[in-house]
Specification:
single chain; about 375 residues; alpha/beta; 7-stranded parallel β-sheet; binds manganese (III) ion
Length: about 375
């Protein structure tokens, strides 16, 4: 470990955020070192990344790939582990300064808690962690003095708008939404859209799960819940505006009516880098916004009749307790069923609505309650889908 460098653990290094984070690290190699890399299943890419970035620790969650990874890296001085428990342990290792949580879904919860308890700076890209257990995460972060810096572009934008505003109350936060690939489709047309169509996002390149969530606007719903916990605002203080160009990444309105926006070309590398270097900004060669090529920024209201998930997220947030956890678990199951073409696009919302009514509501859940809720709701949803 070189002196003066920030040492980074990437949980989920083979996903979209993970690979972009490694690009950022490669472009700023005088500032950053990789301490650990973890992946779920993509053994080949993990091996390639480990050979290039020389982390001290490599973890593959799927134990079936352990021998392969271990053998492929045997000539290098690094430790190789397998299993989800190892990922949680690595997240709390003392040697790393920053932990980027870039894994997909609920799986991010436990390692994020470990990293918080170790007092790390958390570059938070796994939004499900805050959706499922935002109150718990917030309390733990305060208790262990772990800074949580958002990587999600909207929340990074709000975070950037709030720099230098400590003591100034937020009147509201305004999350922008691209509207996704189906923004202009009618309800009738939405009945027959396919997963292949849903996977073509107009502005952002992301993993499959979040791309479907973007098409259904569940992603924006999750981001509303995420904003509640990150910025301590009430549901009434969070507004969503559809902004198809994705140039304004989000905004904050203050008590005097002033609105601050953070703008730029859509590129996740900027929020990733900012989470690593905050409060500093460092020079980059990222593409610059060109006012000549983009002469119009437009805004629309989100349509909650066509995109019911956004309404469900507000409802879950207002109900609180384990309801956002219920919402998340049901969503993970229906998205995976839709990706396998087992259900239709609009059925995802119908099923989520039913599950929110049927699942056992707990007003003040503990960590164990979240675990149990997640397990039960997945089972309930699978049964409903006869999966
Ligand atoms: Mn986002």
């Amino acid at each position: 470990m070189n002196e003066g460098k920030q040492s980074i653990t990437i949980l989920g290094s083979t996903g979209s955020i993970g690979t972009q984070a490694l690009e950022v690290i490669a472009q700023h190699s005088t500032r950053f070192d990789v301490y650990a890399l973890t992946a779920n299943n993509q053994a080949d890419l993990l091996i390639e990344q480990a050979r290039r970035f020389h982390p001290e620790i490599v973890v593959i969650a799927n134990e079936l790939h352990y021998e392969k990874v271990k053998t492929a890296l045997a000539d290098l001085p690094m430790k190789v582990f397998a299993g989800t428990e190892a990922i949680a342990q690595v997240a709390g290792m003392a040697e790393a300064d920053i932990v980027l949580t870039a894994m997909v879904g609920y799986a991010g919860l436990k390692p994020t808690i470990q990293a918080i308890q170790a007092g790390k700076r958390i570059a938070l890209a796994n939004k499900e962690t805050l959706v499922v257990a935002g109150d718990l995460i917030g309390k733990l972060a305060a208790q262990y003095k772990a800074a949580i810096i958002p990587v999600d572009s909207e929340h990074s934008a709000i975070f950037q708008c709030l720099a230098g505003e400590s003591g100034n109350a937020i009147e509201k936060v305004i999350l922008t939404a691209s509207g996704g690939p189906f923004r202009t489709k009618s309800l009738d047309e939405l009945k027959n859209v396919t997963s292949a169509q849903a996977l073509k996002h107009p502005n952002w390149t992301m993993g499959a799960k979040i791309t479907i969530d973007s098409a259904s606007m569940m992603n924006k719903g999750f981001e509303v819940i995420e904003a509640q916990w990150l910025f301590g605002v009430s549901p009434e203080q969070i507004e969503v505006v559809v902004h198809p160009q994705s140039i304004i990444h989000s905004m904050v309105q203050f008590a005097d009516g002033a609105i601050k926006a953070q703008m730029g070309v859509p590129d996740m590398k900027l929020p990733i880098l900012y989470a690593f270097t905050y409060p500093d900004r460092v020079e980059t060669k990222f593409k610059r916004f060109d006012f000549n090529s983009c002469t119009q920024l437009t805004f629309e209201q989100p349509d909650l009749n066509r995109f019911r998930n956004l309404g469900f997220a507000y409802q879950a947030m207002r109900q609180g307790g384990n309801m956002p956890c219920i919402l998340n678990a049901a969503n993970e199951i229906v998205v995976s069923a839709f990706l396998q073409d087992k259900i239709r696009f609009l059925e995802m919302s119908d099923i989520i609505e039913d599950i929110m009514q049927q699942a056992h509501f707990i007003p003040h859940p503990t960590y164990e309650d979240y675990i149990e809720t997640d397990r039960q709701v997945r089972e309930l949803t699978r049964r409903k889908l006869s999966l």
